Amino acid sequence: LPVAGERNVLITSALPYVNNVPHLGNIIGCVLSADTFARYSRLRRWNTLFVCGTDEYGTATETRALQEGLSPRELCDRYHALHADIYTWFRISFDHFGRTTTPQQTRIAQDIFQRLLARGFLLQDTLEQLRCESCGRYLADRFVEGTCPFCAYAEARGDQCDRCGKLINAVELQCKLCRGTPVVTPTQHLFLDLPKLEGQLEAWLERTWAAGEWTANARHITRTWLRDGLKPRCITRDLTWGTPVPLDGFRDKVFYVWFDAPIGYLSITATYTEHWERWWKNPQQ
């Protein structure tokens, strides 16, 4: 835990996605630099905590599980163990290697959601989504595929062909699961009201940029987003594999993985220690 009067260093590295086998590029681009800094911090006798873990929710997991004839949970269990073994073999010096499919993740993600809701930072809107009536489910892009009507590419998916780049009418494709034709159906979703946060965010950024802790590239990208104006961002999906949305009218949905996954850094720390907030909400130390 953080110690008063000492240099306390919390290190995280990007959470590797669970549905494949890590290779050298993943290790070099993801965990190696963090591992190097963790070793340096320990040599300096700084109080250091280095955490990481597998990112396990989302449609990519559902797709891979279907391909392998497993449930999403079985697939995640298999690949989490495989990831952990590989990082151990490479002697990556994690203090804790966790995962995002835990009770801690559900509790913390839902708590953040409830706080946003209570403060008026969420809104509802309707999206047009593909639905397969035969399967009785809404279809993410990964679950819609077929032959592109423009270039005959056999593995076109979603609403755009990856080969020729042309937009495709989704009903010209098929459900990957049953080969049925999807229909466009309206469905209600929740959005993070980013425009309402824009003023607070800009003020915070000016303070942190003045401290000189951001790279020029990070500042440039962030300024570009703000210059164009922030837009509401959908944070729910019509899926079953994910953190449940704790709100009446939306309990058959889960959180979008990019709302959910970054919270994994907090929840993985929480699986390491019940006093995780002393690492994440303790700027004085």
TrEMBL record:
It catalyses: tRNA(Met) + L-methionine + ATP = L-methionyl-tRNA(Met) + AMP + diphosphate. It is found in: Cytoplasm. This is Methionine--tRNA ligase, cytoplasmic. Its EC number is 6.1.1.10. GO terms for molecular function: ATP binding; methionine-tRNA ligase activity. Keywords: Aminoacyl-tRNA synthetase, ATP-binding, Cytoplasm, Ligase, Nucleotide-binding, Protein biosynthesis. It is an enzyme of class 6 (ligase). GO terms for biological process: methionyl-tRNA aminoacylation. The keyword Ligase applies. Residues 9-283 form the Methionyl/Leucyl tRNA synthetase domain. Pfam families: tRNA-synt_1g. InterPro entries: aa-tRNA-synth_I_CS, Met-tRNA_ligase_1, Methionyl/Leucyl_tRNA_Synth, MetRS_core, MetRS_Zn, Rossmann-like_a/b/a_fold. Signal peptide: none annotated. Belongs to the class-I aminoacyl-tRNA synthetase family.
